[in-house]
Amino acid sequence: MDTNAALQYSSHNDTTPIWTANIAPIENEYYKVGVQCKRCSLQIAYLKERAESAYWQSMHKRATEREQKLKVEIEELTAKLRLRERQLFAAKTEKNTNSNVIGLSKSDDNKKKRGQQTGKPGHGRRIHRDIPVLEDFCELSDKERCCPQCGLVYQEMDSTEDSEEIVVDVSAHIRRIKRKKYIRGCQCKNVPVIITAPPPPKLIPRGILGISVWVMILLDKYLSYRPTHRLLEQLRLHGIDIPQGTLTGGLKKLAPLFEPVLEGIRQKHLTEKRWHADETRWLVFQAVENKVGYRWYMWVFISKSTVIYKLDESRSSKVPHQHFATIDEGILLVDRYSAYKKLIRFMNILLAFCWAHVRRDFISVAKDWPKLEGWAVQWIQSIGTLYYLNGLRLTNGRFF
Fold first, then answer.
1. Within 10 A of 346 (CB to CB), how many other CB atoms are there?
2. What number of other Cβ atoms are within 10 A of residue 247's Cβ?
3. 73-122: per-residue pLDDT in tens?
4. Cα distances (angstroms) measured from residue 119 to each of 107, 116, 173
5. What is the pLDDT of residues 125-174, one digit of tens each?
6. In whole angstroms, what separates CA 47 from the centre of its chain?
7. What is the SS3 assignment for 275?
8. Which of 334, 328, 333 is nearest to 348 (CA)?
9. Residues 6+ apart with CB under 8 A from 280
10. Backbone CA torsion sign across 309, 310, 311, 316
């Protein structure tokens, strides 16, 4: 029976509902069961109570559904709030992340301390066999060599008591090049009267800095990654005052000398079949037409034996697409940035997503969704096992 069709609900100024029962369809039902009295007070009351019960059951169902929906919405908003708080105030590093995840916390008592372990043999002092040895003898004065009681002199022995220390002697000097001149000793014509010895070759013509200085600058900047102004400050401590412009201009003149090396690295890089790619923002304070701001991007492409950096003003897919334009096939390890996903549309490259980013997602779930914490921790532990096995692979020298 359609209860909604059987009843009509109207509301007045007060909150008490007024029910008017259209009992005609329901009367037929009572005829079937042998009810003879069609309009008795008990029947009307029964119909009212039955209709009102159906209404409130419907209202309760709707309220329950609405409450459940609000609970889900509150849970989602709470998770987003936790995420925003971690993004704003939590530590950015992922070091020791496991200690922040319930179920993976480690006791401080079992944590291994850094440095020499108690009860373990030490490695001793390192022996530097490749460093030349300069002997420095320490002697007593004539007065100290005499006996304090009788005044007789101690006799010098052939043996010595030895100890060692490492000394770094840093000194700069000016190499004054004197080119000898020779005067003609004959009377021949059409030959110079005086000839001069040629100068030794220089890395930069007419430059004041020698090759040894440029080697030190290049190693300090590109191997030790130290800013050039710190190197210049250190050189000033040794009495060498090199202007910043001289160093910068010299590096620009040296750049073309490395082009053949860069091209060789690039060719070797493209012959391999597995790479890792990533990008990060990089500020370049240079005005570019039709570009707003100074944000550029530093791209890195790593293979087993090579590393190539590319500085570009764009973060679009054109950068990796141009880099791998001549590649037939290969595997590229990346994060889930959409620019890399476009590569598979135009070339035969298989994308392998980084497990570190996947692990980060499960850590977020464990922190933001308490009900799913156990499930997320199981995944984190499985990824940890994968990391362990990968460490064994690298230990055995299998890098790819």
1. 11
2. 19
3. 998 888 888 888 877 777 766 665 444 544 555 555 566 777 777 777 77
4. 21, 9, 50
5. 778 888 888 888 888 888 888 988 888 888 888 888 888 888 878 788 88
6. 72
7. strand
8. 328
9. 297, 298
10. negative
- Give pLDDT, residue 66: 92
Residues 6+ apart with CB under 8 A from 92: none
- Report the C-alpha gap between 203 and 206 in whole angstroms: 9
Q: Are 110 and 98 in contact (CB under 8 A)?
A: no
Q: How far is CA 86 from CA 77, 83, 307, 363, 383, in A?
A: 14, 5, 33, 12, 22
Give me the residues paired with residue 328 across strands: none
Structure-derived torsion over alpha carbons of residues 381, 382, 385, 389, reported in degrees to the nearest 10: -160
In 3D space, the residue among 43, 66, 101, 47 whose CA is nearest the CA of residue 364 turns out to be: 101
**What proportions of the chain, in percent to the nearest 5, are helix, strand and coil?**
40, 10, 45
